[in-house]
Structures are given as C-alpha cells and as structure tokens.
Specification:
The chain has helices at residues 31-38, 95-107, 117-124, 130-140, 145-156, 158-182, 189-222, 236-244, 287-302, 318-326, 347-353, 370-385, 397-418, 423-441, 447-454; strands at residues 9-12, 19-27, 39-41, 54-62, 65-75, 86-93, 111-112, 224-230, 262-268, 271-277, 305-311, 331-337, 359-361. The protein is an alpha/beta fold. The chain contains 15 helices and 13 strands. The chain has three domains: 9-128, Probable tRNA modification gtpase trme, domain 1 (Gyrase A, domain 2), CATH 3.30.1360; 133-219 and 396-442, tRNA modification GTPase MnmE domain 2 (Four Helix Bundle (Hemerythrin (Met), subunit A)), CATH 1.20.120; 224-385, Rossmann fold, CATH 3.40.50.
C-alpha cells in the first residue's frame, strides 16, 4: 500500500446515488493547487488567501466547460481533520457530476484514497490516537442514542484517558522495580514486596472495572439476540410486526408462511434488540420447511432471550409442550398471544409450571400488551448484564483482547512478586503490559494492525 504520509488524496465521501448533495474530500499538500485549477469562484478571489473554515460558491470547470455548481469548504492545516490542507467540494448529488469532479481532481494531481485513509492520516499526524480512530467506527455503527453517546465518549478520548492513567500506574511500579534492581541494598525485600503487590492489585482492580463496564457497553452497542419461536400460526410474524410497528413479515392465516428466519433490530429503552422471527415448529413436509424448523431450533440455542409464542385461542398441543421443555436454563418469556379472541389455552397450568413474571398476555394484532412485553425483555437484559449506570464503555474485539492479556500478565506478575521471583522477570512483565497499552493507543503499533483497523472504514472517511 502506498504510504499515507505522501501525496494528495481524494474521494467521494457520501454514498453514491441520487441525493440533494454529494461531497468530494481532498487532503494533502497539493489540495489548493488542485482547487485553483478546477474551481472558479463566483466572485473573483485569490484562493491562496481564503481563510480556513470558510465556504466559497462557484463552479467546477473542465477547461471552459462547466461541470457542476458547487460550494467549496476550505480547511487549512493544522486545523483540519487530517492536520493537512483539506477541502470539501459540495456538488449536486448525482452520480455523473460527482464522478466528473473526482476525475478532475485525479487528473490534476490527486490520487484516489484508500479505505479509511483520511482517518489514518489523522492518527499518523497526531490528531487522534488509535482508540479514538476506532471510536469513529463505533459512532458510524451505533444503533441507538445511548450507543452513540458511548461511542462519542470514546471518540472524545475517554478510553484513551483511562489507558493513559493505567499506563502511568504501571510506569510507577516499574520505576520501583528498576530502582530495586539497580540499588538492591536500599530497601528491605518485604517492604518492596508489599508495596509492589499492592500497586499491581490497584491496576488489576481498574482493569476489572473497565471490563465490567465494557460488558454493559457491548450490550448497548451491539445489542442482544431475541428469538421468536412457537408453533405455526401462533402469531410470531404478527408479533414481529407489532414490535417493529411496521409490516416487515408476511402475515396470513396459512400456517408455515415463514420458512426462514427474519431478523430486524428494535430499540428497547436505548438497547438494540435483534429480533429473529423463526419458522413455526410443526410437522414438516418438504426439505425447505425442514431446514427452516432446524434453524428455528438453532436460534433457540444461541439467542440470549427466547420468546415463546403460544396461541391463546387454542389448547396447548404437543409442539407447544416441546418448546416449553426446551427453554430450561434459558432466558425466556412465555407470550400468550391473541388475547383479543376467546381464551382456550390452559393458562392456570402454565402459571403453575412457570413463574408469573416470565409470562405475558398480549394481542399482536391490536398491540395490547406489547409495552408490558418490552418491559419484561428489558428486565431480562438488566438481569444478564447489570444495571445501566451511564458509565458504559464499548470495547471492540482487539481492545478487549489486549486488556485481558494485560490482566493475565499482571495477575502472573503479582504472584511472582509474592513468591520472590527474579526482579528482571517482574520488570519484563511490566514492560510487556506497558507495550500492550501502547499497541492499544497506537504509540507502538504494527503496520499490519493499522491496515486491519483502517480497512474497515469506507473510502472517503
């Protein structure tokens, strides 16, 4: 890959298609030379003297031909996203004008940006660290307002600050160990052991708190899976539509309309819940139907919450009983549907066999009881991940993995201190932990890791 430190890059930063506007972004040392060659301001202006963070109206031209009517935003270094000279050309949002303007930028010296290259330059030029760069992805993929707030806090540097504090604590411990190595007679070994082990335990406690908050943050950012299951025609698809407040699934009086899982995400009190409407459990006639039923059973196994839908207008049958037998050990809610019809289900027997707080009566058709169902789902989520306190932290797989590695190494180091292991071994472990924090924040990171992170971005970001 061509180095991101050289050259001027350009890209379309808005989705291709028909829209009100489309934006082309440039960054690099030749940005304003390129703009001078292709942009004609409506009022004669020396573009070299246009102040940063101002906008000029005019036209993009190819020789004497007008390509598009545009607004150009000037962002001069270092007060830009990349800390390089930048410009954004606001075009009309059609595919043809955007591609023509982009081609002109490339013709006059820019090159097409790689995925995430603008953000990569922001990182390389010291505007953000690596955790903040990853926070940008979290912002983009946030599904609820609460998840967005968690991502924005990371983007502002909340995770960076915590890691910096932990790094400082580890450095203090390392100073003590290295002093003991260099001046072995200056301190009694027991005093050294007690102080060093105590400081390591403080760091371990901070890491435990971080991971605990991250568990809640993961739920807020990625959500949990809730599988709707039940016998054919119990009203599963109607329930999905009622939760979504739109007609996403086909609803008919014919049993077995849903042959494969349908997935949608709903927002329950700020938590994204991925609802999976599975195929109805019944005797299967064909290969496709059998696959659908098997997948429904698979979803029951891997979903965090199982929503068992029973038809309240009918007596319990063998398929209902099989489902109820499968929910042992799962987080479940039993939903007695169709309470707008005459009730025939043996409700007293269900309440005898299962806790009442796990049973809710609804009508997916009219929407009655849906609010109570959402409350029960939320209660189950809190039971599984703890109370939402507003201090949640989202860690991606890379970040969580590194933090767990640091914790594992520190736990071993604490034990080595208590057992009077060699000071050089303790110092080496502490240096390893500090290096892993530097890998997290980007102080010490490989090209391979950067490539993996920034390749997840779209071109233009």
């Amino acid at each position: 890959m061509q180095t991101t430190k050289s050259g001027t890059i350009c890209a379309i930063s808005t989705p291709l298609g028909i829209s009100g506007i489309g934006i082309i972004r440039l960054s690099g040392p030749e940005t304003y030379k390129i703009i001078e060659k292709i942009f004609r301001p409506a009022r004669k202006t020396d573009l070299r003297k246009v102040p940063s963070h101002t906008v000029r109206y005019g036209h993009i031209v190819n020789r004497d031909r007008t390509v598009d009517e545009v607004l150009v935003t000037f962002m001069r270094k270092p007060r830009s996203y990349t800390r390089e000279d930048m410009a954004e050309i606001g075009c009309h949002g059609g595919i043809i004008p955007l591609k023509e303007v982009l081609s002109l930028c490339i013709k006059h010296g820019a090159r097409l940006a790689h995925p995430g290259e603008f953000t990569r330059r922001a990182f390389i030029n010291g505007r953000i660290d690596l955790t903040q760069a990853e926070g940008i992805l979290d912002v983009i993929y946030s599904k609820t307002e609460k998840a967005l707030n968690i991502a924005l806090n990371k983007l502002k540097g909340s995770l960076s600050a915590e890691l910096s504090k932990i790094r400082g604590m580890l450095m203090e411990v390392l100073y003590v160990v290295e002093a003991k190595i260099n001046f072995p007679d200056e301190e009694e070994i027991e005093t050294y052991k007690f102080g060093t082990a105590q400081e390591i335990r403080k760091v371990l406690s901070a890491l435990d708190k971080m991971l605990s908050r991250a568990g809640r943050g993961k739920v807020m950012q990625q959500g949990i899976n809730a599988a709707i299951t039940g016998r054919a025609n119990a009203g599963k698809s109607s329930l999905l539509n009622s939760l979504l407040k739109e007609n996403r699934a086909i609803v008919t009086e014919i049993p077995g309309t849903t042959r494969d899982a349908i997935q949608e995400t709903i927002n329950i009190k700020g938590i994204p819940v991925n609802i999976i409407d599975t195929a109805g459990i019944r005797k299967v006639r064909g290969r496709i139907e059998k696959m659908g039923v098997n997948r429904a059973l698979e979803w029951m196994e891997k979903a965090e919450i199982v929503l068992v839908v029973l038809d309240g207008s009918k007596k319990i049958n063998e398929y209902d009983r099989q489902l109820l037998q499968h929910i042992g050990g799962k987080n479940y809610i039993i939903i007695i549907n169709k309470n707008d019809l005459t009730e025939k289900i043996e409700k007293e027997q269900i309440e005898k066999d299962f806790p009442r707080e796990r049973i809710v009566s609804i009508s997916a058709k009219t929407g009655e009881g849906i609010d109570r169902l959402e409350d029960k789902i939320y209660t189950l989520i809190l039971k599984g991940c703890g109370e939402m306190k507003g201090d949640e932290l989202f860690l991606n797989i890379r970040q969580e993995g590194k933090i767990r590695e640091i914790k594992e190494t520190l736990s071993l180091t604490e034990k080595e201190v208590e057992e009077n292991a060699g000071l050089e071994i303790v110092a080496e472990n502490l240096n390893t932990c500090i290096k892993k924090i530097d890998e997290l924040t980007g102080r010490d990171v490989s090209e391979e890791t950067m490539e993996k992170i920034f390749s997840q971005f779209c071109i233009g970001k």
